[in-house]
Write a structure and sequence with these properties.
With 218 residues, this protein is an alpha/beta fold. The protein has a domain of 140 residues: 3-Layer(aba) Sandwich (Rossmann fold), CATH 3.40.50.150. Helix content is 37%, strand content 24%. A seven-stranded mixed sheet has the order 3-2-1-4-5-7-6, with helices on both faces. β4, α4 and β5 form a beta-alpha-beta unit. The longest helix has 23 residues. The protein is globular, with a radius of gyration of 16 Å. One of its GO terms (biological process) is methylation.
Length: 218
Amino acid sequence: MTPDLDKSLIETAYARWAPIYDAVCGPVMVKGRRAAAAEARALGGKILEVGVGTGLSFDDYDASTEITGIDLCEPMLEKARAKMASGRYPWVKDVRQMDAHAMEFDDATFDCVVAQFVITLVANPERVLSECHRVVKPGGRIILVNHLYSEVGVAAAVERWAAQKTRALGLRPEFPFARLQAWAQATSDAILVERRKLKPFGIYTLVCFERTGTPMAA
């Protein structure tokens, strides 16, 4: 495994990505993005999007949800705010520049936390997961979608090679599911409730954790 990505590298890389992000990454990530949003819509309520970026996911929600987004990269958020200003997304209540390692929200604020193509890229994935777990309500879920490391075979070898070439772009193709699983096992009130490859090619994996405990009254 290569070491986790540095925060400054991520900020620099995604500032560069901001002008072309929707055109380049929108079509590539659409299946994973929609799958994560569909899971969140099924739960409804107050949803936190970690790594909201340019707001590509705004179209994937509806009035049954109330979306708050955070991202480390201000140039990406400028794109998201422009989308909000169009008036097309009344369910998006706020986007803020914020470090997911130390969120400014109170405990148990959200019904669901969604992180699309994020958890493999942060400086400390376990800490970000713990912050997601802290701000979600008991009975709520953390929904992740990402490409996860193949671990064996030719695909794993290609991913290890690609990791060295794509690091400066803010990408990390060789992150293993085992780290997510180990975090849940070490967290007393977190359980893995779903792990599935997404069609059509199984490139992306959707992973859901639930914060156990009695759901809070509305």
